[in-house]
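Subject: mismatched residue count in predicted assembly?

I count 370 residues in my input, but I want to confirm that the predicted structure covers every chain. Input:
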Amino acid sequence: MKMTPLITSAVMHFGEMGSRWGFNRTVGQILALIVLADEPISAQEIADALNISRGNTSMGLKELQSWRLVKQHLVPGERREFFIAGGDIWTLANRVFEERRKREIDPTMSLLRDLLLDTPANKTEANAQDKLNEIHDLLESVTAWSQELQNLGPDKLNTLMKLGSGVGRMLELKDKLLPGKNSVN
Amino acid sequence: MKMTPLITSAVMHFGEMGSRWGFNRTVGQILALIVLADEPISAQEIADALNISRGNTSMGLKELQSWRLVKQHLVPGERREFFIAGGDIWTLANRVFEERRKREIDPTMSLLRDLLLDTPANKTEANAQDKLNEIHDLLESVTAWSQELQNLGPDKLNTLMKLGSGVGRMLELKDKLLPGKNSVN
DNA sequence: ATAAACTTTCAGTAATTTCTGAAAGTTCAG
DNA sequence: CTGAACTTTCAGAAATTACTGAAAGTTTAT
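Triage response: the counts match. Full output below for your records.
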């Protein structure tokens, strides 16, 4: 893997951002390297290009595979394992999004459901429970909505995103369009 | 602040999740405590309730204020400062979302723009640049879209979210509805 | 001006996370 | 079965991040 200045700065940047996106620096760098490479790349090449230990590389790749952002690519007649991106950019973004939802929202939803089953012992608890309930509903809407968007598939999703402020106008016409359905509030 | 078991488990959980949401354990706990409290709460009370130092509390509050998740609440005739949530649950969620966008997407967009200005030196770089370009476009769409959704305001946004699979049907009718506008592709 | 009641800052320490590299594991050719 | 070429694991080291508490700062009352 030839590390040109362009690739180097992209890789470094994705390393820095990595921690904000849910993984650590090295994992971010490995991902960038694999995505930007125009050919499958071996673990050893990654370790060399990034100046990290072979062990660390192995763990990073394991993590990226668990996120399904990277997959193995077998080259016939090679003993080494090569790696390539787990899909196109859109797919990768989706996977990061999904995975983060699992880690950031689902556990909270589950706890909130439990806490909402208890009968509040006093005024303070009743108030806290109200708030927790609001949070629960919000997270539920967001989850359902993101699920919905995923079901639309890439092309419709793209249409929707490109629609821009048309969404607002469309909503105003909604009731005429889909009579009887979802007449909210 | 009376720490009932219900409140304690919620606070602890938000502490654990805190790091996944962009801040650290203590900051998450402080936020939960303030949101769930039914009355303004002083820094000392927070430190006591969470068993953390006064200094740490001060820093946590500073961070939460920078995220605009918490604000000061002056009580006449009191020298101490009290704190309350920066808004209702929906507002808070929005602010977290916005703030994270600023930290997670904007810097990358900016770097990508720069990198895309360079002329690729060879095949490998040209390929890498294509990928970077795809990433840039994706992030740009997402940013514009999230901006659009925010402009809709809470109620319309809620309508849209509750619409569920209706969104798909609506998109199919779109061109009849908004003729000439945004005929994508 | 002084003191009391509070807040913030920050150097040093503690806790947590990440990384290394040696050892153990796997696979395959001969 | 043996050894070469690779991979993974994991204990300890290094790096990073978070926390404490004492000192300095601020505000208000007298």
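Chain A touches chain B through 72 residues (CB under 8 Å). Marking this ticket as 'not a bug'.
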